[in-house]
Design goal:
Shape: globular
Low-confidence stretches: 364-368, 415-420
Mean pLDDT: 85
Structural class: alpha/beta
Strand content: 25-35%
Number of strands: 25
Radius of gyration: 22 Å
Strand order of the largest sheet: 1-2-5-8-11-14-17-20-25
Largest sheet: 9 strands, parallel
Length: 420
C-alpha cells in the first residue's frame, strides 16, 4: 500500500537541503515555486532509488498513484521505460544533471518516457543504442491499419524515440516539458502524434540527436482526435549530429489542424552535399540550401521580412574530416558525457557525389529531394499546400520569432525602404 502524503513543501525543501540535493537558496526557491505551482496543493510522492522514499521506481510510482499526483524524482540513474498513458502524473526532478531516465531504444516499444499530459521538469531523458545502429531504417508500410497487432509488429522494426507523445488521453489536455535534456542515439529525440484541443509545450530544453533528428510530429485522422492542436517550442536548443533532417512533419489529412509556434529556438544541424542521405519524396516547398546560398534569394527574403537570428552565415562549410572526428566523440561509452558543440547554424559536410549517386539519380541538382533540414510529408504527392513549408493542415503561427532557421520565423513587417 502506497504512502499518501499531502506534502508540506517547506519541510520537503528543508529535507533536500539537509541531504545536499539542493545546495543554494536560489535553487531551493525555484524548486519550491515549481512544486507549488505544479502540485497545486495535491499529493507529492518521493521516488528515491535507495528505498528511503515512497518508491524506488518511477514506473512503479506511476502505476500506483492517483491521477493529478506529482512525483519528486531524486538523483539516480533510472534504467526503465515509463508509460503515463491514461492519467496525469507530473515528474519533477531535483537535478537535471543527476535525475536520469534511460533505456535501450533498439525496440520501438521500449521508450524511456511515453507520456500524454502533465508536467515533466528538470530531468535528463536518454534513449541509448549500444549496438550503434543509428539510422532509422526505411521499411515498407506492410501493415493493416485496422489491425493493432499488425501495426505493433511493423513498428517493432524501428528503434524508439527518447520521448513518445501519441495517446488519445492527450485529447483536450496539456503537456509541458521544461528544463530537460533529451538525448537520442536511435530515432528522433521526440515523436509526437497530435490530438484535438491538445497543447504540447517544450520550454528551456536541450535536444541532442545522433539518430533520426530532434522532432518528429504528425497530426491524426481519427474522428475521436479531431480539433485544433498546438505545438509550442520556446527557448530550446536543437543539436542534430547525423540525420539530414533536424525536424520531420507529417500531415495525415484534413482532420486535426495543427498550429506550430517556435520562439528563440537555436539550431545546430548538419547537411550533406551528396543527396544519397535525402528523402526523394520530401515535399518541402521552402527554399532549399542551394537557393539559400544565393545572394539574390537572401536579399529577396530580407525584403520580405524573413530573417535568421544568426549573425554569421546560416550555412557554413564543414569538412568531412571534422564531421568524422565529431562522430567518434558522439559514439562513445556514455551518452551522458558532454556533447560537442559545433556551433549554431547549418553545417555542410563537403562530400562530393560519386558514380553510384549519379547512377541512382541522386545528383546535386533538382527540386524534389533537394537538400532541406526539414522533411515534409503530405497524404498525397500532389500540389504544394498552404501550410508550413508546404504542409497540409499544419500551420506556423504569427507568434513565431527569434529562431535560427529562417523558415521557423514568421515574417516581420519591413519598411518601405527595401534592402539593397
Amino acid at each position: 500500500m502506497i504512502k499518501y502524503k499531502k506534502a508540506c513543501f517547506f519541510m520537503l525543501i528543508v529535507c533536500l537541503l539537509q541531504i545536499g540535493i539542493v545546495t543554494h537558496a536560489e535553487e531551493k526557491n525555484e524548486l519550491l515555486q515549481y512544486l507549488t505551482a505544479v502540485a497545486q496543493g495535491g499529493s507529492v510522492y518521493e521516488v528515491i532509488a535507495d528505498g528511503t522514499g515512497d518508491f524506488t521506481s518511477i514506473q512503479e510510482a506511476v502505476e500506483q498513484v492517483e491521477s493529478g499526483a506529482t512525483l519528486l524524482i531524486y538523483p539516480g540513474v533510472y534504467e526503465e521505460y515509463v508509460e503515463i498513458i491514461d492519467k496525469t502524473v507530473n515528474l519533477i526532478g531535483t537535478s537535471k544533471e543527476e535525475c536520469i531516465l534511460i533505456s535501450d531504444t533498439k525496440d520501438y516499444h521500449h521508450i524511456p518516457l511515453t507520456v500524454a499530459a502533465g508536467t515533466i521538469y528538470n530531468m535528463t531523458i536518454c534513449g541509448s543504442n549500444p549496438t550503434k545502429e543509428n539510422i532509422v531504417p526505411s521499411v515498407a508500410k506492410d501493415y493493416d491499419t485496422m489491425d493493432l497487432s499488425s501495426v505493433y509488429d511493423w513498428q517493432s522494426q524501428f528503434p524508439g524515440y527518447a520521448i513518445h507523445i501519441d495517446q488519445d488521453y492527450a485529447y483536450g489536455r496539456e503537456l509541458l516539458i521544461e528544463g530537460c535534456r533529451i538525448i537520442s542515439d536511435s530515432n528522433y529525440c521526440v515523436g509526437i502524434g497530435c490530438r484535438g484541443w491538445n497543447t504540447i509545450t517544450f520550454a528551456d530544453c536541450q535536444f541532442f540527436s545522433n539518430g533520426g533528428g530532434c522532432i518528429f510530429l504528425h497530426n491524426t485522422q481519427t474522428l475521436s482526435g479531431d480539433g485544433e492542436a498546438y505545438f509550442i517550442m520556446r527557448d530550446c536548443e536543437l543539436r542534430n549530429y547525423l540525420s539530414p533532417y533536424v525536424i520531420s512533419m507529417q500531415s495525415t489529412g484534413n482532420i486535426n489542424p495543427t498550429y506550430l509556434t517556435f520562439q528563440n529556438v537555436k539550431v545546430s544541424t548538419i547537411a550533406y552535399e551528396t543527396k544519397r542521405f535525402y528523402n526523394n519524396d520530401n515535399m518541402n516547398t521552402w527554399y532549399n540550401l542551394d537557393q539559400l546560398n544565393d545572394p539574390k534569394i537572401r536579399k529577396l527574403l530580407a525584403n520580405s521580412g524573413y530573417y535568421t537570428t544568426l549573425k554569421d552565415d546560416l550555412i557554413q562549410n564543414f569538412s568531412c574530416e571534422t564531421w568524422q572526428t565529431m562522430q567518434l566523440n558522439t559514439n562513445r561509452e556514455s551518452l551522458l558525457e558532454d556533447w560537442p558543440d559545433f556551433g549554431e547554424g547549418i553545417h555542410y559536410i563537403r562530400e562530393m557525389e560519386d558514380k553510384n549517386d549519379q547512377n541512382r539519380g541522386l545528383t546535386l541538382k533538382g527540386a524534389r529531394g533537394g537538400r532541406h533540414v526539414v522533411n515534409i510529408s503530405n497524404p498525397k504527392l500532389d500540389n504544394p499546400k498552404d501550410g508550413w513549408c508546404g504542409l497540409y493542415n499544419i500551420y506556423l503561427t504569427q507568434q513565431s520569432f527569434g529562431n535560427t532557421l529562417i523558415e521557423m520565423n514568421y515574417p516581420i513587417t519591413v519598411s518601405s525602404e527595401k534592402i539593397e
